[in-house]
Design brief:
This protein is mostly helical. The protein has two domains: 145 residues, no CATH class; 94 residues, no CATH class. The protein is 49% helix and 3% strand. It has a two-stranded parallel ribbon. The mean pLDDT is 86.
Length: 250
């Protein structure tokens, strides 16, 4: 990110929740539901919505939030953990109180976004966006407007900006070091991962051949990644603390 903003000559504002609180959330959802991605999915939107709401109050306008999430490639009915209702329904009262006291999180935003099934549904022009009214953030997802060929992204970034993809990251989700853990837990529970779902869709769109997809089956996270133990150690959890039998968001 730093490398890109320097070359594009744009500003970068970074907003982060407290790390101790994030670790509590990760630990809680791993213990209760055997997953942790719902934390990032929902905290990111609450932080962005709080920022937009404050800009609107202070400056009279709401900045445009731009995301790179594609429902075509990433949403898997029954096994996704993006639901805000799921996130809030499974928070303890103590964690909820700590959430609304976080810096950069606005309590009004939290209460208005709690009813959303999926925060990504509240984009500009949707019924949910209208229902949120003054609390809605102006949000668009780039894959709805431009070609979103995942197989070319790292190459484009390399050619345009000299960016090199880290060698220890996943091919299609290189912004998250913990992505292999999510994929492994999903594979253990459901027998497939996001990699297979994404490639299946790309075949149907003519962006990948079936033969190419079969070759990419080696990217399926069928074995426990080394970073799982690193992550659990950081959280102070043991392997037995991860609830692999719990149902994920529906």
């Amino acid at each position: 990110m730093t490398e890109l903003v320097d070359k594009l000559k744009i500003d970068l504002i970074t907003i982060r929740p407290e790390q101790a609180f994030l670790k509590k959330l990760y630990s809680h959802f791993l213990r209760e539901h055997g997953e942790f991605c719902s934390v990032c999915n929902n905290m990111g939107y609450l932080l962005m919505a709080s920022f937009c709401w404050n800009q609107k109050r202070l400056l009279g306008f709401s900045p445009l939030g731009i995301g790179g999430w594609s429902k075509k490639y990433e949403y898997q009915p029954g096994i996704s953990v993006t639901s805000m209702q799921y996130f809030f329904n499974n928070l303890s009262s103590e964690l909820f109180e700590e959430l609304i006291s976080q810096p950069f999180i606005e309590e009004e935003i939290v209460h208005n976004y709690m009813s959303l099934t999926d925060p990504r549904q509240a984009q500009i022009g949707t019924k949910e966006h209208q229902e949120l009214g003054n609390y809605a953030m102006n949000m668009i997802q780039l894959p709805d407007y431009i070609s979103w060929d995942l197989s070319k992204m790292s190459k484009v970034l390399n050619e345009a900006f000299g960016w090199q993809q880290p060698t220890d990251t996943h091919g299609s989700h290189f912004d998250c070091r913990l992505f292999p853990i999510k994929e492994y837990l999903k594979f253990k529970k459901y027998g497939l991962t996001q990699e297979t779902i994404k490639n299946s869709i790309m075949i149907r769109e003519g962006l990948m051949t079936r033969e190419e997809a079969i070759e990419k089956m080696t990217l399926e996270q069928t074995k426990e990644p080394d970073i799982l133990n690193v992550f659990l150690n950081e959280l102070g959890l043991s392997r037995n603390d991860v609830n692999e039998q719990a149902e994920w968001s529906r």
